[in-house]
Amino acid sequence: MITALPGAIPTKPGSATRPFPGIMADVVDKDGQTVADNTGGYLVIKHPWPSMLRTVYNNPERFQKTYWDPIPPIDGQQVYFAGDSARRDEDGYFWILGRTDDVMNVAGHRLGSMELESALVAHPAVAEASVVGIPHEVKGEDIFAFVTLEGNYSPSEDLDKELKQHVVTEIGAIARPGEIQFADALPKTRSGKIVRRFLRQIAAGQDIVGDKTTVEDPSILDKLEAEIRQRHSQTKV
Predict the structure, then answer these.
(1) What is the sign of the dihedral through the CA atoms of 209, 120, 174 and 2?
(2) Domain limits, the chain
(3) Residue 69 half-sphere exposure, CB side, CA atoms within 13 Å?
(4) Average pLDDT of each block of 10 consecutive residues along the chain (237 residues)?
(5) Which CATH number is associated with domain 25-97?
(6) Where are the beta strands (DSSP E) in the chain?
(7) What are phi and psi of 2, to 5 degrees?
(8) Any idea which fold 107-236 has?
């Protein structure tokens, strides 16, 4: 429903562009108030549209609770919330930051993992990146990035600093990763989706809890877990 029309709407790399004609999209805060341009918030649809869902089969309560209750009514009318975080720029283009459960609250700032990962991958040294939040005593959450490098680059302290500064340049100082872990590979399902829940546990120094059989190559998890534990033990020393 937010999509570029070929030949009609100029694209911006990384942007979902503008809503389809007749789709009344907005970015609001938790109270339903429209947020300022380039400010992260909740993506909502404010008016009905063709082909919208009417309910969830045999579970209308879940339908109401999931899609309509999270954001209070705006001007007396309920709004549809699909669970995405987004921002809208000064040209009216929408940028999807990710699922709300993939959004970090760093010192009161909402940062989407998708936005951070895109900034990292924009650096020529980075082949792939996955970003998760870990608990932080002062900030609430801190940013922990797992990065795989292009073949002609090798991990180093200088590259670590360069990537952190690159994110600052792309997004802002609040988005500087607290830690970057270089990895040979990232844990993925057989369909190619990165398994974030395991990365969150590993980054926080926790034991991996969950079914590893969903990961195509579980040895990647074991290696990352060992590397992070060694890194934490060296930091404490």
Answers:
(1) negative
(2) 25-97, 107-236
(3) 7
(4) 89 86 91 86 91 91 92 90 87 82 81 83 90 90 94 94 95 93 90 84 88 88 90 69
(5) 2.30.38.10
(6) 25-28, 41-45, 80-88, 94-99, 103-106, 109-112, 126-136, 140-149, 179-182
(7) -115, 110
(8) GMP Synthetase; Chain A, domain 3 (3.30.300)
